[in-house]
Design a protein that fits this description.
A 3-stranded antiparallel sheet has the order 1-3-2. The radius of gyration is 15 Å and the shape is globular. It has 5 helices and 3 strands, in the order H-H-E-H-H-E-E-H. With 99 residues, it is of the alpha+beta class.
Length: 99
């Protein structure tokens, strides 16, 4: 453990990893690493239903991974910071190496 941060830092990391635990959420983060996307764009790219994508975006928002900003009648989602995109890219790369 690092000085001053205590166990809370690990708890926060655990929360982040739990938020990323679903394959569709990893795919959403990978898409958002390329730039802002609206729900309908994610639905089209991922081939998932709109309610499913919206549900997973809610989880990612709750974990502080993504943020939404109104763009007319739609909400455009973006990553809060690029660190998460790197974590996901590394995990996907590592999983590909293990195959």
């Amino acid at each position: 453990m690092t000085s001053g941060s205590g166990y809370e830092t690990y708890e926060g990391a655990g929360e982040l990893l739990r938020a990323l635990a679903a394959p569709i959420r990893l795919a959403i983060v990978s898409e958002l690493a390329q730039g802002e996307r609206c729900v309908h764009e994610l639905v089209e790219t991922l081939g998932a239903t709109q309610p499913l994508v919206s549900q997973h975006l809610r989880v990612l928002r709750g974990a502080g991974v993504v943020r939404g900003s109104r763009r007319g009648r739609e909400i455009a989602y973006a990553l809060v910071d690029e660190h998460v995109a790197h974590i996901v890219a590394d995990a996907v790369s590592h999983a590909g190496e293990a195959s």
